[in-house]
Amino acid sequence: MEMAVAHRDSGASHPVDGYFARLARIKAARDEAPDISRIGGRDVGVSVAAGESGLDNGFNLLETAFAPVAAAEGGLAELARRARRELEDAQLALQAEGATVLNVSEHPACTLDPGWYARVQVPRPIYRELVGHREWLHRVGIDAKAQNSPCTSVDVRQAARALNVVLGLAPASIAMFANSPLENGRITGLKENRLTVWDRMFRHSRYAGDHRLQRLPERPFEDLGDYFRWMFGPGTASRCLPLAVEDGYKSAVGVYLQGGPSLSQFLASDGWPGLRTDTGGQVRIMPQGGHFEYSQFAHFLDARWRYRLAEHPGLDALRAAWKRPGGIEELYLRLGAVGYIEGRAPGAGFADAQLVEEAGSAVAATIVMAPSAVQLGLMRNLGEAEALLREWGWLRLRGLRAEALRHALSHEQVWALARETLAVAEGGLTAAERHWLDYARYAVETRSTGADRLLRLWRQHEGDSRRLAAICQARAAIPL
To answer: pTM of the predicted model, to two decimals?
Structure first.
């Protein structure tokens, strides 16, 4: 759950200051034993058993990663309770600095200039690689581009099928949850401008493969081996690899492989020369099976399969498994793989005064969980979801993505896809779960998205010197 922060009085994008100390006190009062994490002496997160409250790329964009919630623990209803409590905590902690969470998937009037980027970016070591080495234009996301990312567990044997469904039907989710028609104080002409970030970020990367890995391939993935060949094969360049594969991917001391080989090329070698990220010194790094798992974040499609293994694969076993159809699935079953589909298409959305007035509190109360309900329903109803995918056609759906970004539910074919996707998702949910789709149903029935509502507000206040403040008042997130 990502949350764009704005100053209540002005509506301006707001980098938090002292927020995590206050948040920790709120959670400590409930005996949640919070642990504050820091980078470079600055607070950047609070961890409790229920999850981690932190930051995405900037101090103006909060991010909460919830711990898994099993169906036996209450499923969607329990996750909704935790999300509501987290939003309550966030809003309470933000009050002291006159700030609020906005119901947007991108701040409507925030600069992207280098000075602002330098001021508000989180000083993570990984950004030295992405910006300094790979030459990504990372600052195009520094205006609080935010997603509501549903994460749904999946058996490793069904992972490729589930990934194909979520990727192929992504235009429906993009459209239903579109919420970013403005950038830098201007109407963009897109209903979900947020998702232009990847094309813009990687367009001039040092490695052309980086740009390729944010575009849907020309066919679905046959299995996980196929998925990883697309991600790690010829035409791609391996990301920086850790000296110790146990280190986290955002903080590890790593090695830049000289010559920019693909990960598959590196793993097939008997060692590769590189430069250390901390000292710049030369080193020869030996391939390990753990480098494969470590590199799973290398692409930026509308969904990923994310996973962890109980133990790292042996390099020879990995090499052999990758050559066999279904080989990765077989190997990973033996290694105790636990994984989930991370949906990245839905824009961030929260209840606010405008939505409550137009749709009512009951519908507004389902907006945060609706993307998770859609994804869960599709994955539980995988056969019908695949049939819908085949009916529409992979390449046709790939083309509809651009229409969903621009028009959302105003586009006739995207609207039809959204209706059919909702019907399949509903079929995968129990009677007690289906009400979590209410916001998605409302958006589809009225053809009115968060982006449409924001555009109406923006135009209504044209010429108003307090325009942004008025937007902030109407769009401040309400925990429901």
So the answer is: 0.96
